[in-house]
Amino acid sequence: MYSAEFYNWCKIELLLVKAAECLRKTFEQCWQRKYKVAWSNTPECGQNFTNSVGFSVYRHVGKIQKEYLEGGDIRKWDLTIFNAIFIMTDLNRGAVFQANLKRLMPIRNSMAHHSDKNIGSQEYQQYWSELKGILLVLGATEEELDDIIHSRSSDSKTFIMTENVKRSIELKLEGNKLLKEQKFQMAVTKYTDAITLPGISDADLSILYSNRSFCYLKLGQKTQALEDAKLSKRLNPEYVKAHIRLGKAYEALERYDKAIKSFDKALGLDTNNDEIRQMRSDARKLQGLRERDNDETIKNLNVKSRQQFKELKNRDQLRKMMFDYDPALEHVWAGHEYRDDQNYLKAVECYKKAAAMRSAEGMYNLALLMINGQGINRDYQQACKLLLEVSKFDPFDKNKIPVVGVKEAEHSIALGYHEGSIMEKSAEMAVVWYEKAISHQNGMSANNLALMYFNGDGVTKDFKQAEKLFLCALNYGDPNAMDNLVNLYVASGNINKAEKWNEKSKKQGSKLARDREHAIAQMALKSNADIAEVIDWEKELNLPFENMTIRERIFRKLSYEHPDKPDILETMNDLENLKNKSERVSPTTITNGYRYDLEVLAKRKDKSEFSNRMYRAVRSFMEALDIFQSFKRRAVVVLDNDSRLFISRLAMCYKLEHFVGSMPMEIREVIRKHVLLLLSYSDRAVKNSENIDELEFNQDCRICHAVLNMQSDENINFLTECIKKYPNNKFFFEIRGCLYNFKDKNEDALRDFNRIDEISKNDVDNVYHKAATFKLMNRMNQATDAYNKFLSIASEDHRKVPETHYSLGVCSMMSRNKDTIAQQDTIAQHYERGLKAEEKQIPFLLPYESTSKEMLELMLRTLGGRSKGKQNPVFKKPVVKLVDPFRKDLIVSHRRGINDFSKIMSSQGDFQVNFTAKPSKSQSVPLSLVGLKPIYLSDIDPTADHVLDGFVLELTLITAPFNNNMSISFVAEDNNSNVQRVSLYNCEKHTLAIGSKISVINPYLRTAMDGKPLIRVDDPNSVIVSPHQIVDMCHNCGKGGSKFSCAKCKRAKYCSKECQVLDWKEYSHKLICDS
User: Fold this and answer.
1) Rounded to an integer, what distance in angstroms lies between the CA atom of residue 867 and that of residue 861?
2) Which of 74, 450, 455, 780 is deepest in the core (most CB within 10 A)?
3) Distance (Å) of CA 978 to CA 441, 882, 883, 921
4) HSE (CB half, 13 Å, CA atoms) of 757?
């Protein structure tokens, strides 16, 4: 038997049910009075409501309630929905009605969150008294209320509600048992049955939704998991698991920022839960990786590096020599091989052996596998210990060779602090460790620290500091640095620099640079007009603008002018950004379908089948985006003619050339959600239909969904379902086959491509896919035949023709041909054919990027062959005075050189340096100095060997010049405090000292013999020494008039004791103190 207190709770619940009935009747009356038509509980009514008077209500409520509103059946609408309707619309009975409705909601909320569902007599009388007065105003009668409280029908209802609670508990327990048995779909059914029972408390519903969310996540239904987790949290904000489920759902959807916030809330409710702390660490780690768009947890080698690594291993003599030098290297290399083959258990064994021999590289790689739980239990604490231990190693061995693993460990520690993954999140400690890694020439650390200053991530936003760090990262070889530098200039409105550096990035082969070129050109045309008004407004109000982007400055003005519109920041249309904006995200996430000029393609479309396909693909994509742009004004997603046309155009683009439809991640996510809703509508429409148009639309929805979710782990399962439903649609087989290849399931991929042959004979793309699959399977003869077949049927300008020639060269390279010379000639022929094929490519596809091409170039260079391709650029060092890393590196290196030269002189007497590398460029002085333009070190590309004709570079010496009898060398800074090495040849007539100011005409930046850049001067007439110099310049900070001197050498001047100590400790003044 149930207690009297429990029956009291049930009776109050029945009164609240009666309140909902009254509000339904009131709504029906108000609707008929306003629109002269009866409410019919149909979706048409729901759509009419949400598109008219109920639009604000629809925006206010949650997703489940939105579905109820769309369905139009007011019998499913609860008190929360009616409260929103009568408060937010004019469908009400006046102020008294609204006042009583506001009194009703606290009672409803109190009952929903009642802890034990037992109400004593006194509490019951209070509720009854207040509810009675409210219900009478809402339209109930005395007789109806008395019937609920006293009649047998009320007891019957109460009994039913009591039984419902009992049944819900039984269903929950059955669901929990199925969950433990990993029968997730069956568990979902049990939880759903329990959720649909009336009379279940919010606390119980919260648990049911939380459990169902977990099951949905296990089934790969991420969106459903997210919605259930949201409902669970909303029903019981104090329920820890609700926040955990929400965090896990957000993490699965790659919305890591929201996942972290959810885990933070869970930790706030359960502060000592290490499991939740671990979840948060994992989410932070994933967030950091996505923001930088590179996987720095494992030091993966690209294909070219792998090829070089394999070649190096096979050179037995060199290999033996290196193993003799460092015996642990044999275990490290073996570990790398196992790791690259994903045999992590063996990799761990090898790295452990190397670690036992105190190998920094072995210990570092072992720590990385611990972090990922690959081949060894995940152990953040032990991994941290290993990384910290490696960071204590000397970064250079006795022969001044960098010790691999040290700066990498420092970088990993910095990442741990930055992301809060393996360390407790700390921006301050991240900066410390990034700077330490930068001091050992780690370019990734410089790039990440620059991004922190760029975004104001844990540090004060500082565009100048970010610029210096990006330049430093570029010096140290981080390939992302140049593109990030362009993004910085775009964001800060420095369009001239953005254009210059974007052009340099394009020459380096950056795809992002090509994508961004048009956007920057458009900004250049518009920026002056757009920003002029903002600048005037800022001057008028004396507002600061440093470290603000153009968009932030415009938004600030808009927000000031429209204080009544808090969502003014959303008025910038996201799809317009796709055409005109360069986003501050990593390169691989920025691709833009509009980079393909439709007019150019229109002129080419009749010249070849491929050009025609490209034209139709780009046109379809642009039409799809234009249609989708109009959807932004809609409150709900509806399946109408525009939606059908949008799907048709987008699917057509993907079926023709899917890469044309690439888009920024944030735009893709919006479109992906829209497509998912349309797919759900379409699935319902075709469930019991044989309508050809509906079936065609459903297939197009599925194609769009598959392409937009290409990175999803569930995509193969989804495509398998599509194939069962539509076994003759070749596009499902094509996408799944490509995914199988990506996951190294080549046999499965080949089966899919063979099935396409049955559906569509001699499909040109399928022939290429089969050839590539054969090559991946190391079936080189079949790959060669398939590649040759592709060349016989493909258009000359097909984007895969050059790659096919290069792949044929790789097939030849991998074949067992004893005639090395003949094999080399064959490889060279395929390489040259590939180069010629590139000349026929559509301009937008150039420069042509191909891993196979790089492999052939490496092979031909190694064999002394006929490679005509440009070698990959070496990232060299420009300038930066940041927190000091690059400046420190140049100064210390310069002083070390002086010290080494002094030692040689003292041991060998009169030593003459009589060699230098012949410069590849010649520097000349113009006849007239009129028209020379000033240039700064930040404008000079350090990766290019070039003379800057028509420019003059002003420099100040910050180190004492050093004459080695061939040249005068020193470190100098420009007027922006950026630094670089300088070598003057044939310039003995000039008298220079620290603090001297010089102007270099037509400066020549070249790569020196050590592979690093410097400013070289061969013509003494190109150097003008200024009579004005910094007298008694501080050897540390550069201030003039320094009064203190080094007590030992008497030459070095300092403005303070602090500068002297810093110069001795950090800049190694001791190296030259006695020299």
Assistant:
1) 6
2) 450
3) 17, 9, 12, 24
4) 11
Place of tokens 């379809």: 620
Higher local confidence (pLDDT), 235 or 868: 235
Predicted local confidence at residue 567, as pLDDT = 40
Residue 745: what pLDDT? 87
CA 327 from chain centre, in angstroms, equals: 39
Q: Which residues contact 973 (CB under 8 A, 6 or more apart)?
A: 879, 881, 887, 955, 956, 958, 979, 980, 1038
Output 266 or 245, whichever has higher pLDDT: 245
> Contact 960/1072 with Cβ under 8 angstroms?
yes
Q: State how far the Cα of 807 lies from the Cα of 856, in Å rounded to an integer.
A: 9
Confidence of residue 785 (pLDDT cuts 50, 70, 90): very high
How many CA atoms within 13 Å lie on the side-chain side of 956?
19
Out of 186-200, 259-273, 380-394, 563-577, pick the least confident. Answer: 563-577
DSSP 3-state assignment of 934? strand
409-433 b/e with 16+ CB inside 10 Å = b? Answer: bbbbbbbbbbbbbbbebeeebbbeb
How much of the chain exceeds pLDDT 70, in percent?
80
Q: What pLDDT sits at residue 577? A: 39
SS3 578: helix
C-beta separation of 23 from 51 below 8 A: no
Q: Minimal CA–CA distance to 747: which of 756, 737, 755, 732?
A: 737
User: Which residues are CB-neighbours of 1059 under 8 A, at least 6 positions away?
Assistant: 1034, 1035, 1036, 1037
SS3 per-residue string spanning 54-123: CHHHHHHCCHHHHHHHHHCCHHHCCHHHHHHHHHHCCCCCCHHHHHHHHHHHHHHHHHHCCCCCCCCHHH
Structure confidence by residue, pLDDT tens digits, 514-537: 777 777 776 665 555 456 677 777
Q: Is the peptide bond before 847 cis (omega within 30 degrees of 0)?
A: yes
- In the block, tokens 């691989």 appear at 588
pLDDT of residue 583: 29
3-state helix, strand, coil in the chain (%, to 5): 65, 5, 30
| pLDDT (0 to 100) of residue 555 | 61
- Whether 510 and 451 have beta carbons less than 8 Å apart is answered as no
Close Cβ partners of 690 (under 8 Å, ≥ 6 residues apart): none
Which of 455, 433, 449, 446 lies closest to 479, judged by CA? 446
Residue 798 is predicted with a pLDDT of 93
How many other C-beta atoms lie within 10 A of the C-beta of residue 89? Answer: 18
